[in-house]
Design a protein that fits this description.
By secondary structure, this protein is an alpha+beta fold. The protein contains 25 helices and 14 strands. 64% of the residues lie in helices and 9% in strands. Strands 3-6-2-7 form a four-stranded antiparallel sheet. Strands 11-12-10-13 form a four-stranded antiparallel sheet, sandwiched between helices. α20 (588-621) runs parallel beside α23. The mean pLDDT is 89.
């Protein structure tokens, strides 16, 4: 069948090429419909429980997007008349950011001041910086050191850095609005740095975070992809030694990518920081198909075959194995749809589409292109072919020691797989060269905490949060959290209410406590809200009908396991000690801490499914149950080794590692298929084990080495991504591919030899 199809593809190559190009043109037009999703919410499924809790919290407390500025004056203190004036001016200018609803910092922080008649008033901490005296600055400094809502939040504990929070309400067209707001923030930063030499400003928050997703995608698309193309051209130039062959190979691959992106556009896909890498992976995977066909074509031409005969023979010999490898690669990728993180779905589906398109176009475009061009064929054979003969003999002669040493090495390294600890920190996904990461690291250095758990305590009735019994329960929970060593701060309206009660009693510290009755608590709330400046309210601490109260627990930097353990410990304490208290717990930190474990749990199913399906495909494709099962060994061992070495040498992974096995499984099976296909073919022709292994090595080995080098180089380029998920995929899959090549050359021959001996012995026993 392969010969008939190869004959058809070469005899009607012009028709196939024209028809294919027409289809590519129609499909490629769809690329104009591609959009980019820069919302970190896209990392979660719509029914993700932590996302639903986060949305519920946002709805209750009027949460908005934000831009956060961190300002560090050159004098290393913010407590001077000049620097407080600078901060005040900056806050006023920050309010002008498009879509901004307000800006808060130390100077416009509202404090309650007790009066002699048992009342209190509200005023800005710095009403007018230009009128400050030295004594005023000292008094402000003392107040800040005693105010937990400022110290460690708006001002660093050392007093040398301050933060300005700008709340942003985005319109329906979020993408364009985010860019406008982010660009204005950058312009504001540049203007103040120029105006105040020595001033350091960092920008973080939801708006810069969303824009950073665009930044990493553009970096990977426009910097890494061209490098991958150049490496592919270089490797194939060394192999083919023919400009025409290199141009045709890369041309087919690039056409496959254009078609893939076009179909993705027609299907309504949105690109994101992960799926933007699909073209790069398609590039490296598709080059494997063209490499196998062209390398054998050139070898046949070198042996004296004419161009048409060489192309037909090469297609017939490679059609079956590259079909199997394309299908198994697509299966490995498509099983990423088991993941609980949708960006992996898009990445997998687009890449799988590209792999299948590349297989089809290798058959329909490559013959027409290559036979239409003058192809220079070098007179000498590739030096790798001679090495393949030597390598096959070496692997057979030393099969015992290779089998034992490889088995011990795999077992020893796999032992360290459990040493990998999961840590999914959103900010740490970003490379240290990016401003969003620099801002986060700067904030960790100067401010309390990095992660937070947000609670919403529900009373079920309007103004129910004024009930002393309810407030006492929240206070009891607050005290418990304050005793936990991981916690650096607990923030809620409770502190504000107790401060008001204190000020209503001439500032007497003994009255820093919950009001005695519900009516009094309600009056204090009413007076406090009346005293607030225009545009400010309690809606970020209480819900609109005052039936729910928010409590924010700020922790130090914790790994995912420790962070979730703290959350679960608090949940158990609440259920045991305050079972009647209704609450919702969540927040961005909680979402990402759980996501990694959710992805791992879902991808265990995905990886097992991929393994089972790929094995079934190989059993059917190789037409052998035994060899199909044997293929499991060289396909599983490489991932086990790399995961083990990663646990030993690095020890920290993110959710990307959960999908890496499924991806790598579909890729590394390529070499195994080509080796086993050639081996089985030789055995059917009557060759013994050693002859069949040598035949498999000499006919497929050179292309295997080149495709593995091409794949590895492309993946190593991917490992240079400035986004952690993408970088880990590249960093882990690249060594898996190379170790899989070693397994196929050094370990698989011994398995085939032992299997043949066992099979002969079994047949002898039966006889």
């Amino acid at each position: 069948m392969e010969k008939q199809l190869a004959h058809l593809l070469t005899q009607h190559r012009l028709r196939f090429a024209i028809a294919t190009l027409c289809i590519v043109l129609l499909g490629g037009i769809g690329a104009q419909h591609l959009t980019f999703d820069n919302n970190y919410r896209a990392l979660f499924k719509a029914d993700n429980p932590q996302l639903l809790a986060y949305d519920q919290l946002n709805e209750s407390y009027n949460e908005s997007d934000s831009v956060i500025f961190l300002l560090a004056p050159k004098e290393n203190t913010i407590f001077s008349k000049q620097n407080l004036q600078l901060i005040s001016d900056f806050i006023n200018d920050a309010k002008l950011i498009p879509f901004a609803q307000g800006a808060q910092g130390i100077t416009n922080f509202q404090r309650s001041i007790p009066s002699a008649n048992g009342d209190f008033s509200m005023q800005y901490l710095v009403p007018d910086a230009s009128l400050l005296s030295v004594a005023d600055v000292q008094e402000i400094h003392q107040y800040v050191n005693q105010e937990p809502l400022i110290l460690g939040r708006l001002v660093s504990t050392e007093g040398n850095v301050t933060s300005v929070y700008v709340t942003i309400t985005l319109p329906d067209d979020r993408r364009a609005a985010i860019t406008v707001a982010a660009e204005y923030a950058q312009q504001l930063k540049a203007r103040y740095i120029k105006q105040y030499p020595g001033l350091t400003i960092h920008i973080s928050g939801g708006i810069p975070l969303a824009e950073s997703f665009v930044e990493v995608a553009m970096h990977d698309a426009f910097q890494l992809f061209p490098i991958a193309v150049m490496l592919g051209l270089l490797v194939q130039s060394l192999l083919f030694r023919s400009l025409s062959a290199v141009v045709v190979s890369m041309g087919v691959v690039l056409i496959s990518i254009v078609f893939t992106l076009g179909i993705a556009g027609w299907l309504g896909y949105s690109l994101n920081q992960t799926s933007i890498l699909a073209p790069m992976l398609v590039l490296t995977l598709a080059l494997a198909d063209t490499t196998h066909v062209i390398s054998e074509y050139l070898n046949l031409r070198r042996q004296g075959h004419n161009d048409l005969e060489a192309m037909q023979t090469s297609l017939a010999a490679n059609l079956h194995p590259i079909f199997l490898t394309s299908v198994t690669t697509a299966i490995g990728l498509l099983c990423m749809n088991f993941s609980d993180s949708p960006p992996f779905h898009d990445f997998a589906n687009i890449t799988a589409l590209g792999v299948i398109a590349a297989f089809i176009f290798t058959l329909t475009l490559l013959p027409g292109f290559l036979l239409a061009l003058p192809v220079k064929v070098s007179a000498t054979d590739l030096t790798l072919t001679l090495w393949m003969v030597k390598l096959s003999k070496f692997s057979i002669q030393h099969r015992h020691i290779l089998f034992i040493s490889t088995s011990i090495f795999v077992a020893a390294t796999a032992y360290f797989i459990p040493h990998n600890k999961l840590n999914d920190d959103l900010i740490e996904y970003f490379d240290e060269s990016l401003e969003i990461r620099q801002a986060a690291d700067f904030a960790i250095k100067h401010f309390k905490g990095r992660q937070s758990i947000i609670y919403s305590f529900e009373t079920g009735e309007a103004y129910g949060i004024n009930a002393p019994e309810f407030l006492a329960q929240v206070e009891q929970f607050t005290h418990w959290y304050q005793q936990q060593e991981e916690v650096v701060q607990v923030i809620s309206y409770l502190g504000t209410l107790k401060k008001i009660n204190q000020n209503m009693h001439q500032g007497n510290p003994q009255w820093y406590r919950i009001p005695e009755n519900r009516e009094l608590a309600g009056q204090y709330m009413f007076l406090y809200e009346l005293s607030l400046q225009p545009g400010q309210d309690l809606n970020d601490q209480l819900d609109i009908d005052r039936s729910e109260l928010k409590l924010t627990v700020v922790t130090g930097k914790l790994g995912n396991q420790d962070f979730i353990a703290l959350e679960q410990r608090a949940d158990r304490w609440l259920k045991q000690n305050l079972p009647e208290l209704n609450f919702v717990a969540g927040g961005q930190s909680v979402m990402f801490a759980h996501l990694g474990f959710q992805v791992i749990s879902s991808m265990i199913k995905g990886s097992l499914t991929a393994l089972a399906l790929i094995t079934v495909v190989l059993i059917i494709g190789l037409r052998s149950f035994r060899y199909g099962l044997l293929s499991l060994i060289p396909n599983i061992f490489p991932a086990a080794v790399i995961y083990g070495l990663w646990g030993l040498l690095v020890g920290e992974i993110n959710q990307a590692a959960a999908v890496t096995f499924s991806v790598s499984l579909g890729i590394v099976v390529d070499d195994t298929v080509h080796i086993l296909s050639k081996y089985i073919s030789a055995r059917k022709k009557g060759q013994d084990v050693e002859q069949a292994i040598e035949y498999a090595f000499t006919t497929a080995g050179t292309a295997m080495i080149i495709t593995s080098i091409t794949l590895t180089s492309g993946l190593l380029v991917l490992s240079q991504s400035v986004f952690g998920i993408n970088a880990i995929i590249g960093s882990m899959v690249a060594p898996i591919v190379m170790f899989a090549l070693l397994i196929d050359f050094m370990f698989l021959p011994s398995i085939l030899y032992y299997f043949d001996a066992w099979h002969k012995k079994r047949q002898g026993v039966k006889a």
